[in-house]
Design goal:
Chains A, B: GO terms for molecular function: DNA binding. The structure is a homodimer. The first copy, chain A, is mainly alpha-helical. Chain A contains 7 helices and 3 strands, in the order H-H-E-H-H-E-E-H-H-H. Helix content of chain A is 59%, strand content 11%. Chain A binds a DNA duplex through helix 4.
Chain lengths: 124, 124
DNA sequence: GAGGACAGTTTCCAAAAGATACCTGGGTAT
DNA sequence: ATACCCAGGTATCTTTTGGAAACTGTCCTC
């Protein structure tokens, strides 16, 4: 029974949980790729590129667990599995896009800051 | 020289870098705490609570490296170190707040989804 | 009946993140 | 003098994350 590190800030808990989810390496890419329409597992894998089955599986499980993505099994022969954003997941698109827009627009500024930082600190 | 895993999606690179930075355990808390005014190291540490020196140090270094936070050393005796958001860092406040608002507003929905998920999958 | 697509699972492994604890070295209060 | 504040640094440990590769098992095509 460790005395849970008490974070004074109540903002911490849900915010950290969200950032944990969408901060994982592939989840935002998955969400963005599902915006237009639902996709099958290997469609997603191909579309994203560079992701292993395991990583994609666990990413999808996490998003599914949090109710952001829905796993739709169509019991045809052979069964077909599609992944789609839930309504809740769709409400995340706006904040995520705000963030990705920022990242793209300020990419140069961040890279410049990094270069400057390294110039000042590696030079020593 | 590893042949960098090439991600087809060009959105990936800057977005991943940003999420890497702000997805780290304490960085959003730091940014939010610096919104009103600059703070000293131990002020931040106390205000956030539950963070170790090492984690706070590396968080601040990362934010500084990316040009989001500025480290201001006032050469008084004893020297005094303040951390403040840069103008670039301030532009991140809006997207971050959009995300944190989402997290807080949809906290219940996410928790409900988790409970449902676990009920369905652990039950087996 | 060999091979490949689909949708994974499992095992093993390396790298990164985070926590704990201890050290520095000057300044300040008692 | 002693002990604590500030702003860290270092060393070690555990946990988490992510990647590689192999394996399942059903279906379809050649």
């Amino acid at each position: 029974m460790k005395p849970l590190p008490r974070h004074q800030d109540p903002r911490c808990v849900p915010v950290r949980r969200l950032l944990q989810t969408i901060g994982s390496k592939w989840s935002t890419l998955v969400v963005l790729h599902l915006e237009a329409d639902s996709k099958r597992f290997s469609e997603l894998k191909r579309a994203i590129g560079g992701v292993t089955q395991k990583s994609l599986t666990s990413t999808l499980r996490e998003l599914e667990r949090d109710g952001l993505v829905e796993r739709v099994v169509t019991p045809t022969i052979p069964p077909r599995v599609d992944y789609a954003l839930t309504p809740l997941g769709r409400t995340l698109l706006d904040p995520i896009k705000a963030l990705t827009s920022w990242a793209i627009e300020n990419n140069d500024a961040v890279l410049a800051a990094r270069a400057r930082y390294e110039r000042l600190n590696e030079a020593a």
